[in-house]
Amino acid sequence: MRTWPIKKLGEVIEISYGKGLPKDSRIDSGKYFAYGSNGPVYSTDESLTNGETIVIGRKGTAGALYFISDPCWPIDTTFFAKPKNDVSLKFIYYLLRTKRLPSLAIVTGVPGINRTTLANINVQLPPLTTQRQIVERLDKIAEAQKLNDGLIQKADELFQSLLHKEFHPVRDSKNSNGVNPDGKDWEIKKLGDIAETSSGGTPLKEKSEFYENGTIPWLRSGEVSQGLIYKSELCITEKGLKQSSAKIFPIDTVLVAMYGATAGKIGLLKFEASTNQAICGIFPNKKFISEYLYYFLKTKTEYLIQISTGGAQPNISQTVIRNLKIPLPPLEVQKQIAAKLSAVQDYKKQLIAKRTKLKELFDSVLHKSMKNE
Asked: Whole-prediction pTM value?
């Protein structure tokens, strides 16, 4: 392993100030983009660059990095860079991602980076052939990340499409309740007529014996937004359970957050747990498949918030939840609907796990490459 020569950043790239884009040059469907420290901000037919450039946030989101292949207009909150001599600009872009540029910002009101400070950063510069090899390697991983993110988006779109197909209500003279999905003639029931519900409780915070060394999982309303819930961050003790209104909810209890910012979020317990009083539990029984109810209620979040009471924060009562009308097809049909939706969610979960692994791979290859490992 040979040591690469160390140079100043200003020796290998030319760092220029961005320029304000006049208002009459900002158009809706221009050929190019104007970039600020937060990314694209305007569309325009004018450009300051004529090829590859690195845009660096100068003010505001100081140190943000963007590699732009096409002509663009970096505005006055940015720097932009072009290469000097034989250097790969894309390599410099990747190299700068390891330099923690935001930490160089001077915080005096609006955070900002000084051009001299930027130009004096030390960089190890391998031969141009090696630079191109590193760029090719990192580009391939970045492309895999982009493709994987696209699949995650398509999985979301497919899930929403299936939800709409299975649960979209039709309103006509034969179905005035507006609950039954289009083309279906399923039985309609109030949730309270087919299921038992209960809220949880919070042991007194001042009582350490209610929390220390606790073994009973205890959920707060924010955790309901996880969807399928397999763990909790906090636990309470047996004494805390007995000395409060908290209770054990069984596996496959459907959860509805009732108060605050997460009101209307729906979760499904995949392990036994207790909850605080801001969560309504709908207990499983033989009249419905819990996954089916979980997916149906996910279509009702906005409606639940609309009919909630209270001031600045929504407050959804158990009465509102129990009065919800539920289309109730035969259990076999419920299973089929739940299975289709779960398959899409499982696929998305796999893609998200792959996204994490791809990020780990990219970060590892990036840092090892820049250290000549």
From this structure: 0.82
Does residue 369 share a domain with residue 341? yes
Q: Which residue range forms the structural domain that includes residue 149?
A: 127-185+329-373
Residues 6+ apart with CB under 8 A from 117: 104
Structural domains in the chain (count): 3
Instruction: Specify whether 180 is located in the same domain as 193.
Output: no
Residues 321 and 335 in one domain: no
- Tens-binned pLDDT, residue by residue, of the chain (373 aa): 468 999 999 999 999 999 999 999 999 889 999 999 999 999 999 999 998 999 999 998 999 999 999 999 999 999 999 999 889 999 999 999 999 999 998 877 778 999 999 999 999 999 999 999 999 999 999 999 999 999 999 999 999 999 988 987 654 434 444 566 666 788 999 999 999 999 999 999 999 999 999 999 999 999 998 899 999 999 999 999 999 999 999 999 999 999 988 999 999 999 999 999 999 999 999 999 999 999 999 999 888 888 887 667 888 999 999 999 999 999 999 999 999 999 999 999 999 999 999 999 999 999 999 988 7
Q: Using an 8 Å Cβ cutoff, are 358 and 237 in contact?
A: no
Which has the closest alpha carbon to 99: 373, 366, 357, 361? 366
Task: Answer whether residue 1 is part of any domain.
Answer: no
Report whether 7 contacts 86 (CB < 8 A): no
